[in-house]
Amino acid sequence: MISTQKFTVTQPTQIHFGVGAIDDLAQKVRDFGGSKVFLVADPNLEKVGLLKKITTPLVTAGIPFEIFDHVDPEPGLRLADEGTAKAMESGCDCVVGAGGGSAMDVAKAVSILMTNGGKAEDYLGLGKIKKAGVPKIMVPTTAGTGAEVTFTAVFINEKTQSKGGMNGDPLYPDAAILDPALTVTVPPHVTAAPGIDALTHALEAYVSTQSHAISDMYALEAIELISQNLGVAYANGNNIEARSAMLLGSMLAGKALATAGVGLVHAMAYPLGGMFNIPHGLANAVLLPYVVDYNIIGNPEKFARIAYVMGYDIDELSLREASRTAVEAVFELNQDVGIPTCLADLDIPAEKIPEMAEIALTVTRPVENNPRKPSLEDVILIYEAAHKGW
Known about the structure:
The protein is an alpha/beta fold and 390 residues long. It has two domains: 14-183, 3-Layer(aba) Sandwich (Rossmann fold), CATH 3.40.50.1970; 188-388, Dehydroquinate synthase-like - alpha domain (Dehydroquinate synthase-like, alpha domain, Up-down Bundle), CATH 1.20.1090.10. It has 15 helices and nine strands. The chain has helices at residues 25-31, 44-47, 50-61, 77-90, 101-116, 188-207, 213-235, 240-260, 264-276, 280-295, 300-309, 319-336, 353-360, 364-369, 376-388, and strands at 14-17, 37-41, 65-68, 94-99, 125-126, 136-140, 152-157, 162-167, 175-178. The strands form two sheets. It has a six-stranded parallel beta sheet with strand order 1-9-6-4-2-3, sandwiched between helices. A three-stranded mixed beta sheet has the order 5-8-7. A hairpin with a 4-residue loop joins strand 7 (152-157) and strand 8. The two termini are 37 Å apart. The model has no long low-confidence stretch (mean pLDDT 96). This is Iron-containing alcohol dehydrogenase. One of its GO terms (molecular function) is metal ion binding.
């Protein structure tokens, strides 16, 4: 299998990991030739005292910066356009994204738009970005999206009320600074959904039809780190070991998805964000066990391996029993960290399910990556099961 498989891996992002790594921010800006920073920041950072920790290295080094914190949990394309206009007007030549996936996606898009011109809408899809952006450095303050190491930026298209991504190698950040100390103030509910989001990235990349030896290595390590540490980080946010493991697991999951892609969970989560403004991580988390249940027959060996890596004893089980244990493993982890058990808990109207299913199937790349090829009826049935609950 490995000897005949063809794959390409492009992952240029410098990774700086460890407690206190944020102190290196100013030096990284200078390493990339930056003289003024456009800081795209999650608006909650100032409320929890993190914004100062991120700006202090810049202040100490005498590097000026402009803060753009008008970032929504599910950002629209207009935010990327507005941010680009302000960055250009302010004379910034380096972009820093700090916060969760939304802030980092906006930051990545701003970097690209500053050199490529046009509007964010022009670059939705794959391979439409022709030029490298200005230097961009990502500082995740949650363990979830892995956006600090991916070539994607996802937005809501206000015209169509659908979600779509800008995709291309120029979107890879130049550097990522992963400081676990920046994640300890994240409250339990913000630890939970992004944590399961990261697990979803790793799990879907592992069973993707585009998976390979390198993506599997990233994915399995991420699945183990996240499944063994999310509960601890959720219960005790000050546990720096658990926070470190989660941040590392999230990053590895991002690397896995960047090389192997994601699957049907993501495709089905897009309508929840576009139509009902459900945060991406929460949508993925609620849908995950139901899609795993559907997908098992597409690759039972790998789903059995997932259950094993998540700490379940499968030695005495048949392959069928072992693979189905993956559903139990995911659902129990969701329960441990307070994820809603069904779409009804998110106030999703059941009558919208057929429309959601049609939209989900238009998210072609994740659907094509999925280990089982879904029909429209399949997707409707999964949504209905997820709406009703176990």
